[in-house]
Amino acid sequence: MTNSNLMVVLSSPSGAGKTTLTKKIQQKFQNFKISVSHTTRKARPNEVDGIDYFFVEKDEFQKKIENKDFYEYAKIFNNYYGTSKESVNSILKNNNSILFDIDWQGNKQLSDYKELKLIKIFLVPPNKNELKKRLIQRNQDNKDVIEERLKAFDKDTVHWLDYDYIVINDNLDNCFTQIEKIIFSNNN
Ligand code: ADP
Ligand code: 5GP
To answer: Is 34 left (phi over 0), alpha (psi -120 to 50) or beta?
Structure first.
């Protein structure tokens, strides 16, 4: 359990292990809830609507932008992703801590809300080869999508300066221990 309402942002190049670690954090800390984003991306075979994302069509997403329903949103790999005010507020209302699995653009936009005390963590893989292996092994994206995500690696990593902590996800357990330490050290 965490005592206070913590707000953790976890960003990384695609395939570095964000989703895996996010799920481990949620298992360990019962009052940590993951902010479920809206996206126009198609669901992967193992993804469930309302749990992994709210999967919506482009025009619905556009309407939500116009209605100012999002705290932040971004276009990533030709799809839109956004954090709705409604899903964040319902998590915070119940006195939970919140974890945002969002990219550097979302982190920048959330950081503009100066009243939020964000703990910003940037996760990196040990190297680019390992990242490629993980993207292939995940077996959820086709070859072109994997290439596109690998290409984004260099552009994504320049944004590590916007974060409070950089954590290398080499051994998964070691990485999780480091993230736990960060959470505990901010839990006062
Ligand atoms: P992201 O959410 O950042 O795109 P995922 O959590 O989906 O990344 O991880 C990508 C793949 O790498 C998955 O198949 C996952 O099981 C695997 N993976 C995650 N962390 C590690 C690790 N430390 N060592 C080896 N494989 C890992
Ligand atoms: P994926 O398609 O692999 O699920 O996610 C692609 C990227 O989109 C990841 O870097 C993930 O963190 C980011 N992402 C997911 N949801 C959001 C969101 O609501 N806002 C922003 N800015 N990025 C998001």
So the answer is: beta
Report the distance separating Cα 87 and Cα 107, nearest Å.
17
Percent of the chain with pLDDT over 70: 98
Q: Where are the domains of the chain?
A: 7-185
| Tokens coding 143 | 């070859």
Tens digit of each residue's pLDDT (9 = 90 or more) over 28-42: 998 899 999 999 999
**Residue owning the nearest CA to atom 9 of ligand 1:** 17
pLDDT in tens, 65-74: 999 999 999 9
Q: Is the CB of 41 under 6 A from ligand 2?
A: yes
Distance 81 CA to ligand 1 centre (A): 20
Tokens of 179: 């993230």
> What 8-state DSSP symbol labels residue 5?
-
pLDDT at res. 139? 80
CATH number of 7-185: 3.40.50.300
d(CA 96, CA 6): 8
